[in-house]
Amino acid sequence: MKYHLWVGYIFLSFFLFINPYAYSSTNSQPITKAINGTDATLYAPLLLPWQAAIKQNSYDSISCGAVVISEFWLLTAAHCNPIDIDEIAIAGTSLIKDGDFSDLDQKYQFKIKQIIPHPDYNEDYFLNDITLLRVERSLYEVAQPIKIATIEEQYLADIEFESSWITYGNSPATVIASGWGDTLEFNSPTTLQVITLAGVPDNQCNGLILNDDQMVCADSNINGLIKDVCRGDSGGPLIWQNESNIMDSDKGIRLIGLTSNGQRCSIRINESENQYNQLTGQYTQVSTHREWIEQQIRLHGKKPSFSLDDNSLRPTLDTDPFSVAKDIPDNNEEIIKNTYRSGGNISLNWLFSGLIIMIWRRNLTKRYKYNS
């Protein structure tokens, strides 16, 4: 009798653990999509040619995002340190298979030869959360740079955010974030994810501390729908479109932010009803650091005349990301509401499993009690 009981326990445990959908509600399905982003390759093979990433030291995994800004230089977040010399930056591709880079062509991999974190980076408040990276060979072999917004353009973006952001309502998508960061807890995508968001006015940005000119804020533009970057996206780009330059070769796309700080993904996912009480996504305002960037590249890149105003520091785009990126995944089943993998939500899988463990512990206690 006991033998058959234990066989039943084992069978039920095996069934529950191999089948993540068994007895689960529609609110707890572990869909492997971004937090309501979409695959960049749906729109173009290389939709964001400035997108880059930093490989984890000794592991085939992404530690942070990065952005190509010139032939040999990338930007990332200062909090992504420590990054070591000869670590690998990846650029020029939308496809990076987490856990196995064996099929990643060497032409997309660039050794990092110099690391320049901002000297005034403050890890408590994420102030000056920006780092320059120099690679050993030309990024232009496979990638293109993005133009960094000027202070005047950032002012225009701020005005747009002020006039278009609607709390407790739908707002137009005014910015796009991107990266290979977790789509669910410990679940990284192979395909670069793009997420349309709304810029949030500084005075409505939850958790913004000190120096409004240090951060750009952004959140889901669809009321009640979770959209956000996640672990592994830090240092990646937040882009905005200057509509006055939409006819230019770069469609007026500007880098305005680097992913920096915000609400933990598990809280964002599992407590979505508290969206407006959570930390708003915060991004290092890159325009504030234009002068520092130019100074460092002139000094360390041995280019005394380097200027971010150089027209060669802009991409030629066939596809406008803002005209094609979708606000909501086409397939309703792909929309992430919440997930038991990110904590805070107990599925029936775990309830049944917990019951099995309780019964097992009870029988184990009886066994040792009566044999002692």
Automatic annotation (TrEMBL):
Q: Which Gene3D superfamilies match?
A: Trypsin-like serine proteases (2.40.10.10)
Question: Per its UniProt record, what InterPro entries does this chain match?
Answer: Peptidase_S1_PA, Peptidase_S1_PA_chymotrypsin, Peptidase_S1A, Ser/Thr_Proteases_Immune/Dev, Trypsin_dom, TRYPSIN_HIS, TRYPSIN_SER
Say yes or no: keyword Disulfide bond present.
yes
What Gene Ontology terms for biological process does this UniProt record contain? proteolysis
Name of the protein:
Trypsin family protein
This protein's species is Photobacterium leiognathi lrivu.4.1
Q: Which residues form the Peptidase S1 domain?
A: 34-298
Keyword Hydrolase on this protein?
yes
List GO molecular-function terms, semicolon-separated: serine-type endopeptidase activity
Quote the SMART domains the UniProt record gives.
Tryp_SPc (SM00020)
Provide this UniProt record's keywords sorted from A to Z.
Disulfide bond, Hydrolase, Protease, Serine protease
